[in-house]
Task: structure prediction
Amino acid sequence: MIVGVNMSLIEVNGVEYNYNDDQNEPALSNVDLSIEAGDFVTIIGSNGSGKSTLAKLLNVLLLPTDGKIIVDGLDTRIEDNTWQIRQRVGMVFQNPDNQLVASIVEDDVAFGPENLGIPNLEIRARVDKALEMVGMAGFQKYAPHKLSGGQKQRVAIAGIIAMEPKCLVLDEPTAMLDPQGRKEVLETIKFLNEEKGITIVNITHFMEEVTSADKVFVMHQGKIIDAGKPVDIFKNIDKLKEINLDVPVAVEIAAYLRRKNIELPDILTIDELVNSLC
Amino acid sequence: MIELKNVTHVYQDENNVTALNDINLDIEHGEFIGLVGHTGSGKSTLVQLLNGLIKPTQGKVIVKDTVLTGKKVNLKDIRRSVGLVFQYPEHQLFEETIYADIAFGPKNLGLDKDEIEVRVKEALNLVNLDYEKFKDRSPFNLSGGQQRKIALAGVLALKPDVLILDEPSAGLDPQARDQLADLLRILHQEKNMTIILISHRMEEIAYLATRVIVMHQGEVVLDGTPAEVFSHEKQLHKLALDLPQITEILHQLRAKGYALNTDIFSIQAAADEILNALRSKKKC
Result:
């Protein structure tokens, strides 16, 4: 195959990963998936299912024990590719406090591009643009510790955006935020996907973040056990519950009503449920 | 059990934020309080006052007949009777073994060795972890959910009369969340503890609490049973607070003309209520 042609942005082929500890079960086994450029992908799975391990492999924080990962035509196993891949695939983690390093917002956002060796004038332009994209324009001189959780997380995202990546991998970016912060971050990543064409891989426990994805991967015990559109994933409520995942309340109520012979279309959200009943 | 009289708290820093503004509150023994409000509404300041971690700028805080705001208060007694579980309490684990970590509090109370052992056993039992299997293990090699259980056990080993928990289910998966809810229910109903639960998860609040207190900008704006508080749909939305999803669905359907009881907080019961409404009335 010619690299870069007819290829997905991210290709994960037969990947296995073993942490070097006493665990017998590999953290990941036989994982195959591809992520297309421009997609909004959500990965769900209970604690310990391998989601975070997979995320770290995409960003070369870990290397596969077996199998391979190709990011934008670059093999993560080749050491010379590491920085190029990290420039293309940026990561955002759960705890915003652990990701902000500078004492004012603009320095923090500039940290990544500075490391890429980008000229000062361009860095300034990139920082301003990135802050605007995450809805934090005007906060350049603020101290990060004075910001709310949602604002901090958006600054962390701006720091990645300033490196102009093709893809953002977010590992439970809203887990430590209050509902307001969660909405802000979710709206931000939707905007980046829809308006700026950035590919999103969002790992989450919150089902309201799943319903808007183009594609969902369900992980369980280190394997991908289901993949598809949200409505198809949520057709199998019993299986999701069995592997310890939430199901949106509207989906669950709709399923119950269908069992009682009420005819309903596909339903993911509260609005869809209410509108189809009225 | 707990009484706040005209309590005001202003943080003494460059911003002088009034975190609590003239709060009056009575909490009876055996209540299960759901404390909700936006970040910055004053919830955390309030619970820190109850445990003597901070003193109010003005007003009186009384816990179990002890005036916390008086002179010569024995804070050790207060902290024994009011257990506070912070957000992400697993970040505060520090001992080499699980036994030592849970025993730390009881040891500081000056309890003897045998009593400490009894308490560690009881506490691990309550959080559903096997004593023999876990006591000598390092708390750091556990999953996040298990670590949180250990941190909680450390507070339970103090046998508090009042247990305060700040977002205890944040980041837990559904199974761990259900286990935590079961535990809180046992502590409340069988161990007779007074519980104050801070949570953004309205499902959890509606399901567990006997009384819901809503705070906004340092004041109590709603106070009542879950059914009462969650019937103030518009006000909650205005405060940017969610309703439980079930309540949201029931409210919206009622607004569209279905005859529904909206005072229902389990999915199964709500689904049945909707079904009955659908069958008794033609489509709207």
In short: Chain A has ten helices and ten strands. Chain A has a mean pLDDT of 91. The beta strands of chain A are 10-17, 28-35, 40-44, 66-71, 74-75, 89-92, 167-171, 199-203, 215-220, 223-228.
